[in-house]
Amino acid sequence: MPTRRDPFSEVEQLIERMNRQLEAATGSRSGEEFADEEEYAPVDLVEYDDEFVATVDLPGFDRSEVSVEVTDNTLRIAGEREEETEEREEGEEERVLRRERRHESVQRSLSLPDEIDTDGVTAEMKNGVLTVTLPRLDVESSREIEIE
């Protein structure tokens, strides 16, 4: 009686080959984050009668590492930081055993449905959460025009 092949073993081998190729291409081992990878910042945008409020999660970023820009009807948020970690062995003169540096950046652009009063835009950052208040530009409401 012939032995049956395990169909899942071929799939597992394929996945292992793909992981090895990915590791070779990126210099990263499976499960590690890619250094210098630009990340996506999640945003909540809420509309009120006279303003929009955007709330963005930026954990680990200081406000000095974040920029907010409003041009035309677009809100742009960018953050960039470098993080350095060192481990030292106690009892010896300073001898670096491991040093890891990480560069992280996030960017996000949102199109806003109305014109914004760019002079009135405010931003506040607290505990890694950025809140941007975008007042609507007072646009003259439509008026009826008499025909002569």
TrEMBL record:
Residues 81-93 have a biased composition (Acidic residues). It comes from the Archaea. Residues 94-106 have a biased composition (Basic and acidic residues). Residues 76-119 are annotated as: Disordered. InterPro entries: A-crystallin/Hsp20_dom, HSP20-like_chaperone, Small_HSP. Signal peptide: none annotated. Residues 34-148 form the SHSP domain. Belongs to the small heat shock protein (HSP20) family. This is Hsp20/alpha crystallin family protein. The lineage of its organism: Archaea, Methanobacteriati, Methanobacteriota, Stenosarchaea group, Halobacteria.
